Amino acid sequence: MPYIFGISGRKNTGKTKIVCEIVKELSERGYDVATIKHDGHEFEPDRPGTDTFRHLNAGAFGTAIFSETVHMIVKKTAVTAEQLALQFPEADVILIEGMKRGTHPKFETVRDYGEVVSAPETIQAIIANEENTEIRKFMEQAKNKVPLYTYSDILVLCDIIEAGIRQKGSRTCQKIQ
Length: 177
Fold this sequence. Notes:
The chain is an alpha/beta fold. Helix content is 28%, strand content 21%.
């Protein structure tokens, strides 16, 4: 299984922006990157008006759509991140956006002091705005010296993930919890 790494944080703290920038950089470095987005609430898996949306509304428990280059499967069943990760055996790394309670290593995005929501032992780095002096002071005084980076430190953040990929081996088994 690919190396699993997360980007967690509260809503509107820049998780998706960081994920997209990390995906772009790791892809440019030659890695096959997959993403899994965790949503703590219910979400609409398809767009109203599409044929697959209509199939689901008619009562199908699942539907799929495919072309020569892409496919999508929607199922009305519970699934774990580990089960989803099995869908990407060819990936070198899977980035999980959200899932703050997961035990996998992760970056935590924060906008304000006191926003950290992930288990401290899983956090590899905090990502915050450069001008946020409260967070910077807090991090300097913290017993657990987690590095603090800014949203523009994508190359360094990717270096951290790349070290994890190399340490684990890109296709080793890793449990997601």
